[in-house]
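Problem 3 from the worked examples.
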Amino acid sequence: MRFIALWLCAVCIIVFAAQHIVGTEPFVLDRSVMWSEPWRLVTSIFAHENAAHLLANLFGLALFGLVLEGRIGPKRVFWLFMLSGIAINIFSPYPRSLGASGAIYAILGALVVLRPWMQIWVSYLPMPMFIAGIVWLAQDVIGSLVPDTIGHLAHLGGLGIGVAMGFVWKKRFGDPPRRKNKYDPKLERDLDRWEDAYMRT
């Protein structure tokens, strides 16, 4: 399924709507009932505290998820998102949690390795992706030392998982052929074959 990040965004929106119908409590990861109600390991990934929380995560998931899909294909993006989110929930030190940010940080971590020179904006400043990764790492390390309601340790866990998987995929598939300013038929064919290897495996 193509554009998997947008489908995951749609699930987040549906779950957020359901929260307003049946309440948020059934979707939250509550460690006291985590194993007796294991669906919370998944539902808590898609549930959000409020509209601002949802919109911020939708933006990150749609933007960076689609970029990563172009490098590794939709299936890998889906499994990276889901498995990192579940793993973070299982090992989370927080008694209660919800939100997709940990899984989104896994996507960011993979891009730090696979698209290190991609230019993005962080706090209104342009920087390459690998510098942004260092900034996010520093922010969450510092944030984890200050009591607040943000899941900094979940972010760090997701970032670590994403970076590790990025190196696995980079080693397996290598770097893509470089595009030139003018059309080069042979280079275009090489790039098509490289992208097809990601999409089909």
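Problem 4, a separate protein:
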Amino acid sequence: MSGAFFAPADPPRGVLRIAGEDRVSFLQGLVSNDVRTVDEAHGIWAAMLTPQGKYLFDFFVTSDGSALLLEGEGARIADLQRRLSMFKLRAKIDISDVSTTLTLWHVWGDGAAAALGLTAPGEARGLEGGIALADPRLAALGMRILLLSGTGAPFLTNAGFTEASFAEWDRLRIAEGVPDGSRDLIIEKSILLENGFDELHGVAWDKGCYVGQELTARTKYRGLVKKRLIPVTFEGPAPVPGTIILGPDGGEIGEFRAGQDGIALAVVKLDALKERIALAADGRRVEPALPGWSRLGPL
């Protein structure tokens, strides 16, 4: 595809609004990234973990000037609100679900970010009734735009973007090796550094303590990562998530996550990648396809 395109998130995303004078300090102690860097010109991608450092939620954090907006999985936004509320205690904040008010749109392609005055991942700007965020993870993923419900398609069409399908954006995401929440991470089991959160700017190593910080730091500094989420290619339709990837001796080497015809994400043991072990699933050869941003290096 060439040009600049837009598509609504599918399924729809959810949005929480955290207002109140303690909003930054409240969230700062709970998530993997540095909330102090969020303002009307900058947003972040962050995760919330269990005390043992296992994945619970990930979301994007932006500011409308008077509140923080957390954009995450729509089906799990009520659970995220409940979990955050458990930590409220005496903090002067108010957490509200504004998912019916704001709709997320993906915008990507040639010159997409520049068309709205965004030049680098993580840059943000206010729009009439919404916020545009250059995806903090990778420039190739374009922008995440929150707009008042019912206004998105007309606004983006008038801005010169061409409507496309969510599947086209999702294929780009998969090819770039970027996880999409609980589609690709196992709740209360996955750890961030096995899923690219370091290279994709989802962890601030100098921010101080947060829930799950100790295990995350120990994993990095002791070199405890043993497997990674990567793109893989194969012939035909994608195996269902959870399908086991086998080595030539029949041993389990990895496991499929989300995918489309010919390409998917999979968690694969690093030893198998380094030794270039032949991989197979459902009787088909599976080929690793590492993205350029990965620190794993060429195979």
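Solution to problem 4. DSSP finds seven helices and 17 strands in the chain. Helices lie at 23-28, 77-86, 112-115, 152-158, 166-175, 213-221, 270-274.
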